[in-house]
Specification:
The structure holds 2 protein chains of 2 kinds. By secondary structure, chain A is mainly α. Chain A contains 3 helices and no strands. Chain A folds into 2 domains: about 35 residues; about 40 residues. Chain A is about 90% helix and about 0% strand. Chain B is mainly alpha-helical. Helix content of chain B is about 80%, strand content about 0%. In chain B, helix 3 runs antiparallel to helix 4 and helix 4 runs antiparallel to helix 6. The chains are: A mainly alpha, B mainly alpha.
C-alpha cells in the first residue's frame, strides 16, 4: 500500500465523517435507537432464552443420569 | 416419545429464531427492541399454562391421592419457573429501552414477580416437611392458591392504571398487529408450547425414576 492510496482512503474517511456527523446530530430519538443499545438488549434477551432452555434440558439430563446409575445398584 | 417431542420443539424454536432474525418486519415505532415480544409473550403463555397444570394436578392429587399427579405437577412447576424467569428477564430488557428503566413496581410486573415467588415457595414447602406425603399435600395447596394470581396478571393492565402495554393478541377487538407479526408470535407460542411439553415429559420420567429408586431403597 503506497502513500497515494493511503491519502485517498484518509480523504474518503474524512469526507464520510464530514457528511455523517451533522446527519447523526439531526437524528430523531427513534433513529438514534438503532445505533447500538437496543441491539445489545435484543441479543441479550435471546441469549437468556437459549441459555435458560438449554440449561433446563442439561440439568434434567444430568439428574436423570445420576438416578439411572443408582437404579441397577439398588436392584442388585 | 418425550425426547422426540422435545426435539420437535427445539426444531420449531430454530424456525422461530430464523423468523425473528431474518423474516419478520421491524416495528415502525419501537424498532428492533420490539422483537423481544416474540419470546416474551410465548414464555408468559407457557408459564401460565404450566402453573395451570400444577393447579389442576394439585386438585387431582388431593382428590385421588395418586402420586402420578404430584409427579406431573412438580414437572410442570419446574417448567413454569424456567419460563417465568425468562419473562422476568426479557421484559426488563425491553423496558429499559421503551420506558427508560429496567423495573417499575406497576401491577403486572409486581404480580408476575409474586407468581415466581409463590412457586419458589411451592418447591420450598415440598422439601420442608419430614413426611414427604405431607410435603406433597402442602405443595398441592400452594400450587392451587398460586394459580389464582394468573387471571389477576391478565386483567391487571385493564383494571389498574398500568405502564405495561395492553393486550395486542388476546383483546376484545381481536388481534391488533400486522399479519407477519401475528404469524411470528403464533410460531413462538407453538414452539414454546411443544418444547415445554417435550421437556416436561422428560422431567416426569426423572420423577418416576426417583420414585422407583426411593421404593427400592425402602425395601
Amino acid at each position: 500500500m503506497n502513500a497515494r492510496s493511503l491519502a485517498r482512503m484518509a480523504s474518503v474517511l474524512l469526507l464520510t465523517l464530514a457528511v455523517a456527523t451533522p446527519v447523526l446530530g439531526q437524528a430523531t430519538e427513534l433513529g438514534r435507537q438503532t445505533l447500538g443499545r437496543p441491539y445489545w438488549h435484543f441479543f441479550a434477551a435471546y441469549a437468556i432464552v437459549v441459555v435458560m432452555l438449554a440449561g433446563w434440558i442439561v440439568s434434567i439430563g444430568r439428574r436423570l443420569k445420576v438416578v439411572e446409575r443408582r437404579l441397577p445398584e439398588l436392584d442388585g | 416419545m418425550a425426547s422426540a417431542v422435545a426435539l420437535l420443539g427445539a426444531s420449531l424454536l430454530m424456525v422461530l429464531l430464523w423468523m425473528v432474525f431474518f423474516w419478520v418486519p421491524t416495528e415502525a415505532v419501537q424498532g428492533v427492541i420490539q422483537r423481544i415480544f416474540y419470546v416474551h409473550v410465548p414464555a408468559a403463555w407457557v408459564s401460565f399454562m404450566a402453573f395451570g397444570i400444577v393447579a389442576l394436578c394439585g386438585v387431582m392429587y388431593l382428590w385421588l391421592k395418586d402420586d402420578r399427579f404430584d409427579r406431573l405437577a412438580v414437572s410442570a412447576a419446574e417448567g413454569g419457573m424456567v419460563f417465568t424467569t425468562i419473562v422476568l428477564l426479557t421484559g426488563p430488557l425491553w423496558g429499559k429501552i421503551a420506558w427508560g428503566t429496567y423495573w417499575t413496581w406497576e401491577p403486572r410486573l409486581t404480580l408476575t414477580l409474586l407468581l415466581w415467588f409463590i412457586y419458589l415457595g411451592y418447591f420450598m414447602v415440598r422439601n420442608a416437611t419430614e413426611n414427604p406425603e405431607r410435603g406433597k399435600r402442602f405443595a398441592a395447596v400452594v400450587g392451587i392458591v398460586g394459580a389464582l394470581d394468573i387471571p389477576l396478571i391478565h386483567v391487571s393492565v385493564l383494571w389498574f392504571r398500568s405502564l405495561h402495554p395492553q393486550p395486542v393478541v388476546l383483546n376484545a377487538e381481536g388481534p391488533a398487529l400486522d399479519a407477519d407479526m401475528g404469524i411470528t408470535i403464533g410460531m413462538g407460542v407453538l414452539a414454546f408450547t411443544v418444547f415445554f411439553f417435550g421437556v416436561m415429559m422428560l422431567r416426569y420420567q426423572l420423577e418416576c425414576a426417583r420414585a422407583r429408586a426411593e421404593l427400592l431403597e425402602a425395601r
